[in-house]
């Protein structure tokens, strides 16, 4: 079974994203919010550029022809691979690399809420809900959403039907 260019690019982009995330965390400090801001920008850039690159390379491998649905499928598959790799790294990051990060940010949120004179019960309920809602797959829905949007755009931009193939009206 031959692995497609979109899967190879998705794996490479996921690894690049994870290395960049860890490098930013190591250089800026694991307990600063800037790490997550940069991670989101890098993820968005790697996602959009990767979708367009994988669709373009798929078109090039098909002698310059590609239908819209093939471009869409290529971009979505790239996005799924990237999302899975990011979810796995997210789990590894918060379980083994910085297991106390979530608790640190929740304690900072508690301090901030207390300074705004919120009731202790409201603060506790909010923090308990945030702690229970945290999981490693939080990045998957936004990556898939923006991957779908990028795939739609890339499919529209790079579509070109082969004039030598007749298409049925089905």
Characterization of this structure:
- The protein is built from six helices and no strands.
- The protein has a domain at 5-98 and 137-158.
- The model has no long low-confidence stretch (mean pLDDT 84).
- It has helices at 5-28, 34-61, 68-97, 101-115, 120-133, 140-158.
- The protein is an all-alpha fold and 170 residues long.
- 76% of the residues lie in helices and 0% in strands.
- It is elongated, with a radius of gyration of 21 Å.
Percent range for β-strand residues: under 5%
Count helical runs. Answer: 6
Q: List segments where confidence is low: pLDDT < 50 over at least 5 consecutive residues.
A: none
Average pLDDT over all residues: 84
Query: Cα distance, first to last residue?
Result: 31 Å
Shape: elongated
Primary descriptors:
mainly alpha, elongated, 76% helix, 170 residues, 6 helices
Layout of helices and strands:
Elements: H1 5-28, H2 34-61, H3 68-97, H4 101-115, H5 120-133, H6 140-158
Helix pairs in contact: 1-2, 1-3, 2-3, 2-6, 3-6, 4-5
Summary, kept brief:
The protein has 170 residues and is mainly alpha-helical. The chain has six helices and no strands.
């Amino acid at each position: 079974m031959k692995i497609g260019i979109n899967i190879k690019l998705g794996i490479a982009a996921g690894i690049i994203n994870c290395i960049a995330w860890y490098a930013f965390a190591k250089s800026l400090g694991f307990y600063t919010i800037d790490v997550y801001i940069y991670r989101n920008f890098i993820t968005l850039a790697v996602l959009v550029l990767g979708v367009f690159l994988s669709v373009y390379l798929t078109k090039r491998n098909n002698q310059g022809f590609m239908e819209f649905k093939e471009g869409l499928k290529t971009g979505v598959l790239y996005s799924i691979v990237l999302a899975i790799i990011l979810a796995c790294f997210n789990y590894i990051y918060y379980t083994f690399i910085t297991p106390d990060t979530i608790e640190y940010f929740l304690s900072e949120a508690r301090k901030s809420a207390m300074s705004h004179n919120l009731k202790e019960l409201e603060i506790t309920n909010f923090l308990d809900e945030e702690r229970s809602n945290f999981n490693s797959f939080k990045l998957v829905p936004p990556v898939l959403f923006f991957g779908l949007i990028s795939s739609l755009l890339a499919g529209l931009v790079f579509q070109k039907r082969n004039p030598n193939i007749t298409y049925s009206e089905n």
